[in-house]
Amino acid sequence: MENAMKVFGENVFTESNLKKRVPKSVFKEFQASQLGETELSKESAEVIANAMKDWATKRGATHYCHWFQPLTDLTAEKHESFLEPTGDKDIIYKFSGSSLIKGESDASSFPNGGLRSTFEARGYTVWDTSSYPFIRENKNGVTLYIPTAFISFNGEALDKKVPLLRTMKYINKQSLRILKALGNTEAKHVFNTLGIEQEYFLVNKDLFEARDDLLLTGRTLFGAPAPKGQELSDHYYGKIKEKIINFMSDVDVELWKLGVPAKTRHNEVAPNQFEIAPLFSVANLASDQNQIIMETIEKIALRHGLVALLHEKPFAGVNGSGKHNNWSLSTDDGKNLFSPGKDPKTNKRFLLFVSAVIEAIDRYYPLLRVTTASATNDHRLGGHEAPPAIISIFLGDELTSIFENIALKKKLPVSEMSKLNLGVDVLPTLNTDSGDRNRTSPFAFTGNKFEFRMPGSSSTPATSAAAINATVGKVLKEYADKLEKTQKKDLDKTITEIITNAYKKHGRIIFNGNGYSDEWKKEAEKRGLTNELSSNLALRKHLDSEILQMTEETGMLSKQESIARYNAYAERYVTHLVIESKTLIDIANKDILPAGLKYANLLADNIEKVSKFNKNYAKEQELLLKEVIMNVTNLRKEIKSLEKKIEKVKNEKDLGKKTDLAAMYLATGLESLRVPCDNLEKVVDNSIWALPTYKDLLFKL
């Protein structure tokens, strides 16, 4: 394994690489453009493009591409070579400033929710100066990747990056207003940071290719449970198999070369499930790096004869995969705005920013649910491996007590940092944390950040980060308006009033208990918090007037862009369920039904032979044959039923009604068809059942 210190960032065009290759004035202008303080001039863009081209071509690059994130939760790229013909029939490498800054794409071919049509197809990719260009090496060449935003001809956002960049700018502005009102004139910028934990499964490539459902949908649409699942809790943090540690080591090296600070790797709860987590970064860079992580995991897995599954629920009956987004705010002078400091009881800044989060999440929690809504994540949310679909905040008992003492004039005891003596001489005495962790909470305060645990493993973190930025930024603006009108002598009083009002009016969103319990569902309903289990209904919150007003006011999305996103995501929801339904029907007809019939014939032949000897000896086989025939019959019945339901969904023109039908008919129809499939798998002879089982997929690596 290569030394991380030697290879880290070698395939990234970092600021230090740029600084060495351009005049000081150009570098200074570039840095100002990163902070949104100025626009990069054409002249400087030419100089930077040439420097970038020289760096990349010296490392073997022959092509470049604008790398962007359309509304698919995947990335997109179009490669162009550096080759440029000269007048004497020769060629040179050339890369202009305009090619660096802007590219063009057919926007109508990507999900756009109606913002683009076939006869109005033009879309642009625009260089994001705040994210580092990088090179990717493959067997036969090297390509320079330039992170870009994706917009329409009219400037509407068609990607996941633009709303994040807009809201990072917005929350920076409002946070600085708060800090200035509190007397901090040193901070010039507030950065939104993210630390992202990525979960995934690995399966053998040959087994993956033998399962059309995994190939086409990313999850198993049928499969009887293996005799063993995760009941023994022996996989989580367990010894990593040699084959897997070799894979993980290669992933780490590849990521380090790309400047991704991969930090943590371990077995997750379910068999063949794993997690990787890098160090936190500025949100936009962290989001881009998460895309790099997912793509790298998939690429390296293939080299090891494996396939990485990023679907939220590849296997029924065991834990699904999430993407925990650890969200925070930090200043350019090194202060974490959610760090309680030595005395959180009197830390005005800390309590003010936490109050803003409490109020923001309570007022706009439907938007957070929107950001986690997908047909794939529906299989995970609400199960006992993921938070419920009810949005709540975990603060911990100590921090909650502080708020209650301030807002409700209580006198609850607040513990100081205490010691934890383990009673074993060879183990050191530990300082306890101020609060325990709550893995059942969707949005948990974990010391100096909030961990949003609802997003699915295949999603881009940019979406939820943008929503949190916008909602918290909106509340911070309202706080700043009040503080700026307050005289210095009354500042503490106003801060106390803000904290008090936030807790009194919005404290319902705080829940420190077991989010998995039925009691919480009942309590949440009493508090007026919704439990939107279906993404079909959750997505419609995009169109709520209060949400539309807030996203437009904060600059996250215009009303037209919000409506377009609802249309794009709703269409995707329906399409996903249609593809799954058609896939399962195809497998049931061509693989499972023939296996069931073949086994039934085998049983019938055997019963006939045994009956000639003694009919009593064939009774158990007759019962088994009856069971097989019953499931074959049910299989055909459910296939026909699901086929009709698909047509009904496809024929509906109204998008809202279409998503209702998909949720009502296809999601349930898939489960109904799965039952006879799984029942047949449980009894059909292994020599006849040719499809890889859960035992194969989850325990053979």
Automatic annotation (TrEMBL):
GO biological process, one term: glutamine biosynthetic process
GS catalytic domain: residues covered: 168-592
One matching Pfam family: Gln-synt_C-ter
InterPro entries named among the record's database cross-references: Gln-synt_C, Gln_synt_N, Gln_synth/guanido_kin_cat_dom, Gln_synth_cat_dom, Gln_synth_gly_rich_site, GS_Type-3, GSIII_N
Any one Gene Ontology molecular-function term assigned to this protein's record: glutamine synthetase activity
SUPFAM superfamilies reported in the protein's UniProt record: Glutamine synthetase/guanido kinase
Domain of life according to the entry: Bacteria
Protein keywords: Coiled coil, Ligase
EC numbers: 6.3.1.2
Domain GS beta-grasp, chain residue ranges per copy: 62-155
Coiled coil: 618-659
Family listed: Belongs to the glutamine synthetase family.
Protein name per Swiss-Prot or TrEMBL: Glutamate--ammonia ligase, catalytic domain protein
Originating gene: glnA
